[in-house]
Write a structure and sequence with these properties.
There is one protein chain. By secondary structure, the protein is of the alpha/beta class. The chain is about 45% helix and about 15% strand. Strands 3-2-1-4-5-6-7 form a seven-stranded parallel beta sheet, with helices on both faces. The radius of gyration is 18 Å and the shape is globular. The mean pLDDT is about 95.
């Protein structure tokens, strides 16, 4: 299927690794010019070079920096001031017991996982509406639908973003600008393997055993692949998806047990 976005311009946040990288790769596969940003310059360059090699006709711009800071956002927007596509993504805050979190912990979580996406939307959405095309995808978490008790900082900050989007996405769609959330469950990424490694060390067992146990618990019997996440993201960004807005789409292998 031709997604109808060849030649469009995209900003993809936290795109050096994992799900952000997969989204950037798939958008480039569709002929989208991509501006990548992440804190790790080395990993970011590696991803950018891989895209350039695979798609010589696509312009790839890399901006090393922290998207959760005003300077990080300013640098990305300077590199791509008028994106047609915006993929909001940032690492989640650490787990823990809410009794131990300070106000500073909460502010940091809200800043990264709620206010940063809102600031980027604020900076780009009017241009999208004026041009009559825009696709904004917020990579959040399956915890938005099914909260995880030790991830309270993430639950709260991402739920706040979700509530904000529920309102604004109904105002932008008349100008062919959609805003949706992609909610990943367990995907085979460095982050998932990192938590599995910690559990393996604690239980004094092999990390592959922990991964196998976790995968077996999912109805699909496996973890998701970053590639299939990127493909779902690309479709939401496509010209074919203009009637989808304000939605929160779970990619979790059926783990969420609810009807709605």
């Amino acid at each position: 299927m031709d997604l109808g976005i060849k030649g469009r311009r995209a900003i993809v946040c936290a795109s050096s690794k994992g799900l952000g990288r997969a989204c950037a790769m798939q958008l480039a596969n569709e002929g989208v010019h991509v501006t990548l940003t992440a804190r790790g310059a080395e990993a970011l360059k590696k991803t950018a070079d891989e895209i350039r090699k695979a798609h010589p006709g696509v312009t790839v711009t890399e901006v090393a920096g922290d998207i959760t800071t005003p300077q990080g956002r300013a640098d990305v927007l300077k590199a791509c001031p008028d994106p047609d596509i915006l993929i909001n993504n940032a690492g989640g805050p650490p787990p823990g017991d809410f009794r131990n979190w300070t106000r500073d912990d909460w502010i940091k979580a809200v800043d990264a996982n709620m206010l940063t996406p809102i600031e980027l939307i604020k900076a780009t959405v009017d241009g999208m509406m004026a041009r009559k095309f825009g696709r904004i995808v917020n990579i959040t978490s399956a915890a938005v639908k099914s909260p995880i008790d030790i991830l309270g900082l993430s639950n709260g900050a991402r739920a706040g973003l979700t509530g904000f989007i529920a309102g604004i996405s109904r105002k932008t769609v008349i100008n062919n600008v959609t805003i949706n959330g992609l909610l990943p469950g367990p995907f085979d990424t460095d982050r998932l393997r990192g938590t599995a490694k910690g559990e393996a060390e604690k239980r004094k067992i092999d990390v592959e055993q922990v991964l196998a146990e976790r995968a077996k618990l999912n109805p699909a019997g496996r973890f998701g692949t970053p590639e299939e996440f990127g493909e779902a993201c690309a479709f939401l960004c496509s010209a074919k998806a203009g009637f989808i807005t304000g939605q929160n789409i779970l990619l979790d292998g059926g783990a969420f047990p609810g009807t709605l």
